[in-house]
From TrEMBL:
Top-rank lineage group of the source organism: Bacteria
Ranges for domain STAS: 165-276
PANTHER family xrefs: RSBT ANTAGONIST PROTEIN RSBS-RELATED, RSBT CO-ANTAGONIST PROTEIN RSBRC
PROSITE patterns: STAS (PS50801)
Keywords: Phosphoprotein
Name assigned to this protein: STAS domain-containing protein
Length: 282
């Protein structure tokens, strides 16, 4: 018989009671927390997850460390990726793990008192160490998974913002406008290049105005990406016209030795459109 098999049986018999006690004492008001949900389906799943955790946790007293650790990790990875938990602030999740841990500590203390004749001081120390360590493992996995998910969401939001900040707007017929606003670093310049080519192809653009009036400064790398964009557009049959180049950018371009001599340039977007319309009418 494993060293703590009696404790395993003791806790397994009380697993549902522990889970119900935890659920009955939930007190949450934050609507972003899964623990404040009033959705019956969400609450049912929450109860199932907690009870499943209890049964997996109890295995730390009946199985080898490699076996029960793998089982706990499997439960933690699955629960951490649950959409309701992903929407819940991590400090609420840690708080609930601590509440469950405290319930377990109370039951384990009761067990050691009931079996004080067979559970030595060394046994009790080993039991509590194993229990706390197991909670630490699960909490660590939750924090790590939440961190990963947060980074994924931030990257997705960053890409969306970048994409929305460089839209190709159809003005009329096959004529489009790419208004660039704000700071443009190398990463954003690369994204602009990819998105613009894709959007021009998708929207069948043959004439594109690239307006820089909202851009305060560009460096050599960004300028090179801009030249690459214009060349790539030309290969797609899209004529590009730059407009709204601010004095600061023009001065920087000269200092960096950048040449705009082969590009179609107008002082403003209004002038660019008016000039092209005049040429078409003529």
């Amino acid at each position: 018989m494993p060293k703590h098999k009696l404790l395993y049986d003791y806790l397994t018999e009380r697993a549902e009671d522990i889970s119900q006690t935890w659920f009955d004492t939930l007190h949450e008001t934050d609507p972003d927390s899964v623990y404040a949900s009033t959705d019956p389906a969400v609450l049912t799943n929450l109860k199932k997850q907690n009870l499943a955790f209890n049964y997996q946790l109890n295995r730390i007293f009946s199985e080898e460390k490699e076996v029960y650790t793998a089982a706990l990790e499997k439960w933690a990875f699955k629960a951490a990726r649950d959409k309701e938990h992903l929407k819940t602030p991590i400090h609420y999740i840690i708080r609930e793990f601590i509440r469950v841990r405290d319930l377990y500590v109370g039951h384990v203390k009761q067990f050691t008192r009931l079996h004080s004749d067979t559970v030595t001081e060394e046994d009790a120390e080993d039991i509590f160490h194993t229990l706390i360590k197991s909670f630490d493992v699960v909490i660590h996995i939750f924090i790590e998974e939440m961190y990963k998910n947060t980074n994924i969401q931030l990257e997705a939001q960053k890409e969306l913002i970048t994409e929305l900040s460089s839209p190709v707007i159809v003005l009329f017929d096959n004529v489009g406008l790419l208004p660039l606003i704000g700071d443009i670093d190398t990463a954003r310049a690369k994204m602009i290049l990819e998105n613009t080519l894709h959007q021009c192809s998708e929207k069948r653009i043959t004439q594109l105005y690239i307006d820089l009036s909202g851009v305060a400064m560009i460096d050599t790398m960004v300028a090179q990406q801009l030249f690459t964009l214009i060349e790539s557009l030309g290969m797609l049959g899209v004529k590009a016209t730059l407009s709204g180049i601010r004095p600061e950018i023009a001065q920087t371009a000269v200092q960096l030795g950048l040449s705009f001599s082969n590009l179609s340039i107008r002082s403003s977007l209004a002038e660019a459109i008016a000039s092209d319309l005049t040429q078409k009418k003529g």
